[in-house]
Structures are given as C-alpha cells and as structure tokens.
Model the fold of this input.
Amino acid sequence: MAWRLHPERLRGGNPLDLLGLLIDVFMILLVVVNLALIVFDALFALSWVQSQLENATPAFFQFYHDTIHADFFYYDLWFVAVYLTEFMIRWIVAIARGTYHRWFFFPFVHWYDLLGCIPVGGFRWLRTLRIISLLLRLQRIGVIDLRETYLGATAVKYYKVLVEEISDRVVLNVLDGVQREIRQGNPLMQRIQTEVLQPRQSDLVDYAAGRLIAAAEATHADYREPLGHYLSRLTDDALANTRSGARLAAIPVAGPRAIALIGDAVRDVGVALMDQLIQDIANPDHRETVDQLLNDLIEHAAGDAEQLNALVRDTLLDVIDQIKAQVSVQNWKLEEERAEAERRAARAARSRHT
Done:
C-alpha cells in the first residue's frame, strides 16, 4: 500500500502542534540524509569504491575526497548541532507542558537521541531510533498510518508472529513446570484442595444439586414405563426362584392370577414411589436436604485421600495436556494458510472471468 499522510487531522488544532509536525518531518528527512551520507562515506573508504568513482566521475571523486571525506567528522558535527538544538527545544516544550513528572526525566526517556549525537563509531547508528521514534509519534497523533504501508503491514505481521511464538513458549514452559509440581506431589495438590476446592464446595454442591434435580425431572418421563416393566419382571423372577412362589404358582387358576397381581402391585408401587421421590427432590422446600446429602457424600467419598489425590492429579494433568495442545496451535500459520487459500480462490475467479 502507498504511504498516506493525514494532515487534516491537525486542522483547527494548536498552531504549535502544526509547527511540531513540520519539525518532525524535517528531522526525519535530515536523519535519512545524514545516515545515507554516513553509509556512503563508509563505502567510500573502500579502495575499490574509490577506484570506481574516480574512473566514473573524477571531478566528484576529487571533491568528495578532498572536501567531505577528509573532514567528515566536521560535517557530521553540523548534523549533531541541529539534533542537539531540536532536542533542547523538545525538552523545553516537555517541561512547559508538564509531559513528565520531573523536568529532568526527558533525557532519560529519550536516551537514544543523546547517544546518537555522539559523532563516533556505532553511536551514529542510534540515529535510526530517532527516525523510528518520530514516525511513532506521528502515528500516535494520527498524521500518518504506518499500517497502510507495505513495510508497516509487514512489520506488524511479523511482530504478531514473534509475540505469539514467544508467548506460546512461555506458557508451555509454565504449564510444564505445573505438571512437574503435580507429578512430584508437591504442596500444590494440597493447596488446590484446601484453597480452591474446599472454599467452593458449597457452590459446587449447589450447582450439582440443581443439575441433579433438572436431570431427574427431564429424564423421569422417559424411564418411567421401562422402570415399571423392570420391577414387574424382577418380581416375577423372584417369585419363580423361591419356594413360596413355586407353591403359590402351583395353586390351580388362582396361583398364576395371584402372581400377576403381585407383579402389577409391585410395579405400580415402585413407579409411584419413584414419582413421589422425583417430586420431593424437585420441591424447593427439600433443596436443603438434597444439598446436605451431596455434602455428606462428598465428605465420605474424601475418606480415601490417596485415591482422591490420584484422581484429581490425573484429571489436572489431562486438562493441562489439552491446554498445551491448544497453545501449541500456530494461529499465525493458520491465518497465512487461510489468506493463501483466499488469494488462490481470487486468482481462480479472475482467470474464469478472463
């Protein structure tokens, strides 16, 4: 995408802001020229570059060699003088506006500007940070949008990739450490039970009781008739396998009829008992009883602490494994594949039209 300026966002604002914008743009151009000159002078120091320039443009070679290259430090000081002047002006403006908590914070925040003014060695390349800071300031006030440029979009893209990869590695290392703690039986398991599960036991019980009542009400209608058939068959089998039942069945005519009546009675009583039980469980007046029952079950179930610890430990390890599997998914790669698929589809659509 092309570079876009948005100077209209400063219209109607403070004239000093517009002046600051012009200074920022001028400083960006100046630093670019300065860095280009530094690069050119560094290349000019190479003998083969000098020979090529001397053969191609002898007049320029002689001028640059005798005037600029011989006193490059002196000419670079002119740039440094402009940098320091602009730095002092911005410092004064920051003090006047109260930008920082103390007046002397400014040079510490913009340390790279000061170090970049040192006209020797690698310090000069810190002037690149001045360009970046100026561009970010223009981005922050909305005059430019770096995301609308190819370099800006590319930088944002790979920044997101870098952040995702680093954060994924950090999360995976943390989860690996948690799993090691759990496997080694460190106090983590005890803290989970005493500081996480036990304080929330009443909430968990209340939730479990509500789900139990809802499930019972929802499924009782479906299982009511099968329950009756089961009780009737169970009664028939019990009578057939007992001596009293065999004697009753041996009574002519009345025996089989009595057995059938007993089965029907057991079935009706069983179904009626289940109906009443569901009604009692669903009755709000009995909710406290249900909660207490579940509390008692949990307390008695916690009697075998080692078995419970093993169950909780294995559950936590499986949950963490699932989290690690999800964290390991490279979302940026999925987005790349999706974007590539969309581009292929768009190319195919254009080729069909043509």
